[in-house]
Amino acid sequence: MKKRLEIDRSAQCVGCRQCELICSLLHENIFAPWLSRVTIIKNEATADSRAIICRQCKNAQCASACPNQAIIMGADGVLVVDSSRCDGCMECVKACPFNAMRFNESKHLAIKCDLCGGDIQCATVCPAHVLIVEGER
Amino acid sequence: MSAFNSFKVLHVNLNDLSFRVEIFDETYLKRFLGGRGITSYILYRDVPKGIDPLGPENILAFAPGTFGGTSAPTAARTTVTGKSPATGLFMKANMGGHWGAELRYAGYDALVVHGNSSTWINLIIKNDEVRFESAEQYLGQGVKDTTANISKSHQDLPDVAVCCIGQAGEHLVKYAGIFSSVYNTAARGGLGAVMGAKKLKAICCFGRSGVAVKDNIEFLAAVRECLGSIKSVGRCAYYKEYGTAGGMIGLNESGTLPVRNFQLGYMKNVYNISGQALTEKGYLVRRDSCFSCTISCKRYSKTLDEYKGCESGGPEYETISVFGAGCMIDRMDPCLRANYLVNLYGLDSISCGSAIQWAMETAEKGLLPKTFKDPASGKEYTLEFGNAEAMLALIDMIAFRRGLGNLLADGVKAAAEQIGGDSWKWAIEGKGLEQSRVETRVAKGYGLAFATNPRGPDHLYGQPMAEGGYSPEMREIITLITGSEKYAVSDSIAKKPEIVAWHEEVFAITDALGLCSRATLSTYAISPEHMARLYEAATGIKIAETEMFEAARRIINMERFYNIREGMENDADRLPWRLMNEPLRRPNGDVHMNSKEELKEMLGKYYVIREWDGSGRPTKATIQKYGLDDLIKPGDCDYGD
To answer: Complex ipTM above 0.85?
Structure first.
């Protein structure tokens, strides 16, 4: 079974951002939470934090919205951004119903969760067990 | 991008609204490790002797620490350094939250604010753009509103990180704090009043350049090792479950909770104001973490039966302990209301609660009137222990310096000097700073650490919690320092100078790297070995554990020198009068005191370990040994013999 990244709604996100940090390091070689594929929305006044992840939709609206067919099925069955085709129009970012598509402003490229090529990393550092890997066996 | 080849400092001058960048080369990173080390040097270098802490010559230096912005667990801490208006001496205060990471993402390793502005302003740092704006519209607003309104009016800066002062800082209360991410406070020593004197309401940071470490794979491996350690240490889980206030019950049971302005060690109904009640009775809304921290000791809580509608970050142990146990309030809701108010107005809860418990005792002993009136409401209150309404009214009056609040806003030392009589004897302060909530008459290592602390009697310079041997990790640490677990005894002075010195050094390393003492001390989850591994992977600078400790001693000497140059008295390394002269009687009949003889013996040994002379002054040989002779100008400081 293919591994899936999921959110356990019964657990409480504490807003530590470890997931964003490991994601940006592994994908962009830099600690930069705004370049992470997983997003933490934190309201500091109420200490309320929640995670936004890519749902890896079967009929993905990000892919349908892309005028350049830059969001393609990768070898491991996960939709990925082909950066050679992406022209940074942000149609995918607008189309995602979960606000999970991210955008690298300096490179002018859409970025998307690729489940780390099957070896999902963000869940391994989540102290609150909000991010969990389903289908691990 | 912050990349560890150097240490980049943004200097801002509010006298003429100018700024410049100063680069310290890589050698300074190794010499001082980063953050607090380099800013303590800058304080010594840039602030002349004898200046008014509220005058334009004082600085406020903000340093996130070498790991700021990375995933090093707990790397959220920013050290704020300046000359304290409470003590007239060296002050570093430290805050968590997100702000420090954002400063590093903007490309700076530290920010130093010089000068005083003539009008109220905000400082905006957006990557390499530095600008000022009028802060008039935010004047009179509390921390929460200031933060929210600044975010609202800067649509070009999504998720801007704000650090600011509340009304207490505007009114130059000598224990106003600097707040970041709403509830994270660089609380101690009145640096919020320094910010107020500078007429600087807020510093807003927005960075998009990121932080790159030298060796990603090794850094991540070191991070995972720390995460694993945090997961396996029982005290980390305890802090997550009950917060720092989880210690109230245990301290009370052992008769070492500072109750009634340090007159007693025990109170009834302490469960009502414990971290356990907070969690179990529904006051706790949710748990929270600082940036990159997986311990999650932070709380967000709400009142339930009285004072409805008070929701706030916290309360921490220190806050609930001083307002609850210190002022004899055994109900949670008034304590939560007090916590809400100090966070709103931007006050240091330890000093604020200490001032109120001092006033309650002073009225009891007849040196202050038994009642006081709030000039704003005209309402009269009875000033006595256990009166929650009086306590809450005084927080308000202190923040705005109204009536009796104006006397208390200068701290207990100044207040006692003004009231006279014996009132100084129950002013629980040292060097002008109110003591934090530790019963040093039982914890002798804490006693020594509080006496030698350049900030005053406070737990956040060298926190020797291991002396109690409460956990396997603590007993291991005591064995590491002294060679035997048998020295893990609070009420003994044996080996305490060694234990305190080690803790002060680890604290200096922790601050310089931007980690949290909750991880490196008090739980002992992140070890010096972990820190050295992270440091090498991040900076590419090879460093042995022993070299980190050497750098820590360099920092401690630098800070000591600052105080000696300021003319700190030779006998300043002491504890509050009450703790050295009035015994604590525990419920089991044991009697404890911080006797002059015990303190003298510990100080003598401690000064030898520090390579200082008999009166606690670093010697010329010490300066040379730690390579400080090119930084400390000949003749500007009185060396030891």
So the answer is: yes
